[in-house]
Amino acid sequence: MTQTINVADQVMPAVGLGLWKIDSDAVALAVYDAIKAGYRHLDSAADYGNEVQVGEGIARAIAEGLCSREELWVTSKLWNTYHRKRYVEAACRKSLNDLGLDYFDLYLVHFPIALSFVDFQDRYPPEWLFNPSAEMPSMQLDRVPLSETWAAMEQLVDAKLARQIGICNYSASLLHDLMNYANIKPAMLQIESHPYLTQEALIRTAQSYDIAVTAFSPLGSLSYVALDMASEAETVLTQSVVLAAAQRTGATPAQVVLRWGLQRGTAVIPKTSNPQRLLENLSLSGFMLTVDEMAAISSLNQNRRFNDPGTFCEKAFNTFHSIYD
Fold first, then answer.
1. From the candidates 48, 87, 107, 196, which is the catalytic residue?
2. 156 occurs within a structural domain
């Protein structure tokens, strides 16, 4: 049975396929295989640089009768260079066109970071650097209030380009501020969360506003080792409390960690292109963790953030830009 989470007035599959870092030459098949395996929730973004190929996988699955468009939940995200009001709709339409879709089920502000506009024709996706060929390439910030960006996001709902809108990587203070000016309340907060970064106060804050929460990188360090943003030793999957729960339930360690995320009330979007792992990550409904197991896994918290602009922007883009205290 598909597990779901309420998102405003709609129901979203609680387990989705995260599409970050899946190579463009592999992602079309990964999406097709995922839909064939039973996935109905796909988490994409302009910045991932693979939305054309994601759309090819979706189109193939629909053409072969594996699902209809209405059965899919497709999320994408507004990149940092398109925060000015006049660019938001064009950016949304660009992603829709690349994916071959008429609307998004959910469209998110990717980061609370505004960067100077880069034209689609000059470079797409533009990523973080303003001018990669400069002698010392760096980020170029733009003075755009988050309220301006949100007002333009609301217009996407009015234009029926997005059924729901939301935010990623917001802190509790930014969320409180947003709720003071939003005419359309955000339906979703997407954040990094796993047993080493439980973010309990932030999740509770979002839920107090009836804002659903999606945890990206729900398995922790696995997506970051290849980027030199985490070490092999930082895996949560070998922790004794995870292994003990896996032994008791007959689940794999990854399934235990994903189940922990679901039982906290969050959606999870693990990333994989491996057909066996696709099935493993989706098969989370046959067991439950006990109260003690949930508490033991939560106690692994180290406030260890792998995806932190305050760290990677300076290292990779010659610009220090912290968004977390």
1. 48
2. yes
